[in-house]
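forwarding from the other thread:

> can someone predict this with FE3-S4 cluster?

sure thing
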Amino acid sequence: MKKLYIKTYGCQMNVYDTERMVDVMAHEGYEVTETPDDADLVVLNTCHIREKAAEKVYSDIGRLRLLQDRRSKAGEKKSLLAVAGCVAQAEGAEIQRRAPTVDMVFGPQSYHRLPEMARQAGKITDQGARPRLVDTDLAVSEKFAALSRKSVSAGKSAFLTVQEGCDKFCTYCVVPYTRGGEFSRPFEDVMRDADRLNAAGVLEVTLLGQNVNAYHGRDADDQEWSLARLIRHLAAHTDFKRIRYTTSHPHDMTDELIAVHGEVAQCMPYLHLPVQSGSDRIVKAMNRHHTIASYLRTIEAIRAVRPDIALSGDFIVGFPGESDADFQQTMDLVRQVNYAQAYSFMYSERPGTPAAGREDQVESHVKSARLAELQAELDRGQRAFNDAAVGRVMTVLLEREGREPSQLVGRSPYMQAVHVDVGGRELAQKYLGQMVEVKIVSAGPRSLKGELSLT
Ligand code: SAH
Ligand code: SF4
Ligand code: F3S
């Protein structure tokens, strides 16, 4: 067996893509290794969303170069090094220039060609030369056809990509350029993957898309399927106990999808609905296609059908031109919405995006101060949400082992991490992968502790 090491950066879409690459390379005789030290092929599945994420890739390549040098001094064969994902798509030529140790560069829509590229690259290195292969084609459907799920990992919770790419063009964001335009997988393809997961005993499925609620896949009769309809179908025709979806755009949060939250028991009471800023002036400059009032109306409608829903979001502080007053509107919005949790970032100027060229960039110390203030408020909200869970009994899907042998970790319906001591190593093996009733006994800033509830 040859050895494959893949490092995944960025979003869940990359996690899913990594699983697909592992799948496709297993058919080529590669098995996964946990370290690059003994790998025949190293793949970095990269993220371009913020400058820090992209720079991390170059420092990892630097570290891998040292490893390669050590290996060649020891007379061992060098591994093939591939850079995949969004940095590859955006900066293919730059990577080749800055990092001559990289053998292959391929974008998110070319993974199905990885086996062929690896074979070709292998032949070239056997002849003593370093290969320089690049593939940054953006035609999506071909990839999905070639990479549909062949194997299913043992976990009880799985991702299923139904939509990829984005046509929204928020003025700060690289995704429409790195992932290409919006593409919805055909209904039958999605169901084929869903059926495989179902047959493998998966209990929780998370439907993925950069704008997943804009899903509009067609079926063989050329009928269009909305995300709402797809969720209803999955709930009726599979045994999935939990259905989640991410990430949603406020603009595409239809009444039909909101109704699903009130009517479909398997649709979990958690929604990640990024708003980015609480200032109308700023969301307009971000080209977000919604206002703060329309966002609040959407949230009100969701809470009307599912009062306990846990809301999550993304925020950017320090977008060009953001004043103190704009930022305070973000703080007001956060206090008003009461998020169960949320992610917040300092605006990062991304090459090629419309906001990057603006002259009214916010100074970095101002961005840091705003981020700290916002995060303190979001932390307070998350803590309050977690505290409110204490004493309640919740269903938890025990997905993985915890730090102690008798401990398992899972998620509540509201996406909170719950640590459960099941009372022994053997019991832990028995309960791993099960959905159980858990009484929450204490809450921390990022997680809950619970015990099995026998009633
Ligand atoms: N498609 C999703 C998420 C895309 S990226 C959506 O629209 O919600 C995830 C998050 O990264 C975004 O929601 C945004 O908050 C953040 N982000 C994107 N570009 C950024 C940039 N240039 N600087 C800082 N944060 C950014
Ligand atoms: Fe980026 Fe906006 Fe598309 Fe999300 S909706 S991926 S933030 S352009
Ligand atoms: Fe990053 Fe690409 Fe995802 S830029 S956030 S890995 S879509």
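The first helix runs from residue 12 to 26. thats all i got for now
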